[in-house]
Amino acid sequence: MTTETHLDVLVVGAGISGIGAGRYLKAEHPAKSFAILEARGASGGTWDLFRYPGIRSDSDLHTFGYEFKPWRDRQSIADAPRILSYLRETVTENGLDAHIRYHHRLVSAAWSSESARWVAEVERTDTGERLRLSANWLFCAGGYFRYDEGFTPSFEGRERFGGPIVHPQHWPEDLDHAGKRVLVIGSGATAVTLVPAMSGTAEHVTMLQRTPSYVMPVPREDRVANLARKVLGDERGYAFARRANIAKQIGVWKFCQRFPAAARKLIRWVNTRQLPKGYPVDEHFNPPYDPWDQRLCAVPNGDLFRAIRRGTASVVTDRISTFTERGVLLESGRELEADIIVTATGLNVQAFGGVELTVDGEPVNLPETVAYKGMMLSGVPNFAFAIGYTNSSWTLKVGLLCEHFCRLLAHMDEHGYDTCRPEPADPAMPTRPLLDFAAGYVQRAVNQLPRQGDRMPWLTSMSYHADVKLLRADSVTDPELHLSRAAALV
């Protein structure tokens, strides 16, 4: 095993968060050395990995894009190729190409308080070679999904089905669905994207859901944003659209939280207007939970509803009894025949890519840690991570976290510190799940993740305006953030 040179910061993941982190480091700390490790052979993260038909954002790109780089495309709810192009432009424009190490997967990282550094064990995914890197800081920017394996429930009789069964996370390039009967199992963002995208060429697409989701039509193009860019120019127009859309997102979320019954009625009214007359809206589009207990599914220009109106797509709400040779048998006794089955049943949550962390030889047990400002872990020195909002655009929070991280590095440099360790002043502080969200993918993994506390700075905020104050305006110092210099280096 070879040991390479020491780095100031080791960033894990070359997706939207890791690329953002790299840009902030380049801009704010040009003298610092850093590398971005990417296990795959390409940048872009989610937007390069997923190849299923119709893949697109479910947030507008004026808030999902970076604050420092205007979104110039007319599409606001954009498809994956446009987002991928935007991310790779960011890489090139900011000179990040030389910093990204492809086919490098972080396996484990060990912190030494004596030397005030991490020693990371890295695997070359293309050759199997192992190497070691050392770094002052570890910044995990890979989100919380497991990228090598999606979630598929155990289905009785699955082996009996004669056609292909595909998970969207592993979409075959040669899958031809033209003229075929397609059954999409699921009701989340992936399912409502796949159904209209495939219905244009398939014989028919059926979305089979166990429980309905809230689905809302949104314009694919943001006329106000496009007008603002035309009148004010790219920079100022983008800034205006970003502020306006942040306010809109926050307003919708607050309305749903404060007036769930009214929000449910409004969404139902919108759905009814989009669907054929007499359609059983309450059976297929009326979830048993309140709006924003789980994320709302956005459908650009109402494409899902249009496919239903055309008769090229349909929704069935039922439970699967067993797979059959020709499709699936439902608990109601109805059989849905299909040539292709797509299991859009979700993703697996995995904290920090499954990396094994140790601090001075002791393994870090994530459920025993508490998140500090939603970006560091109690008892784990010089470790930061990027997790965005569940109720708004992911990148809004990631940008603030990167800013705060860079400010913290500057403060430590100015005062001669090399070690930063968050520790709760009250060890008996009550805690709750880090991701306090009802979505199934979160609930399946909630006991494997860090916790959050019941007070600042141990609360994981889901409020952009609160985070602007905490992460951008407030001081980086805090009584519960212990800064020091390693004795061996004094």
Topology:
Blueprint (H helix, E strand, L loop, with lengths): L1 E11 L3 H13 L5 E5 L7 H4 L11 H4 L15 H14 L6 E3 L1 E9 L4 E8 L5 E11 L4 E6 L14 E2 L14 E5 L3 H11 L4 E6 L5 E4 L4 H10 L1 H25 L1 H15 L6 H4 L12 E4 L2 H8 L2 E5 L2 E4 L3 E4 L4 E3 L2 E4 L3 E3 L6 E4 L2 E2 L7 E2 L3 E2 L5 E3 L8 H22 L3 E4 L9 E2 L6 H4 L7 E2 L11 H10 L7 E4 L6
Parallel strand pairs: 1-2, 1-6, 2-3, 4-19, 6-23, 8-17, 9-10, 9-17, 10-13, 11-12
Antiparallel strand pairs: 4-5, 5-6, 7-18, 14-15, 15-16, 19-20, 21-22, 24-27, 25-26
Helix pairs in contact: 1-11, 5-10, 6-7, 7-8, 11-13
Description:
The chain has 490 residues and is an alpha/beta fold. The protein has two domains: 2-147 and 348-489, FAD/NAD(P)-binding domain (3-Layer(bba) Sandwich), CATH 3.50.50; 152-345, FAD/NAD(P)-binding domain, CATH 3.50.50.60. It has 13 helices and 27 strands. The chain has helices at 16-28, 46-49, 61-64, 80-93, 189-199, 223-232, 234-258, 260-274, 281-284, 303-310, 394-415, 440-443, 464-473; strands spanning 2-12, 34-38, 100-102, 104-112, 117-124, 130-140, 145-150, 165-166, 181-185, 204-209, 215-218, 297-300, 313-317, 320-323, 327-330, 335-337, 340-343, 347-349, 356-359, 362-363, 371-372, 376-377, 383-385, 419-422, 432-433, 451-452, 481-484. The strands form eight sheets. Strands 1, 2, 3, 4, 5, 6, 19, 20 and 23 form a nine-stranded mixed β-sheet that branches. It has a five-stranded parallel β-sheet with strand order 8-17-9-10-13. Strands 14-15-16 form a three-stranded antiparallel β-sheet, with no helix packed on it. A hairpin with a 3-residue loop joins strand 14 and strand 15 (327-330). Helix 1 runs parallel beside helix 11, helix 5 crosses helix 10 and helix 7 crosses helix 8 (260-274). The radius of gyration is 24 Å and the shape is globular.
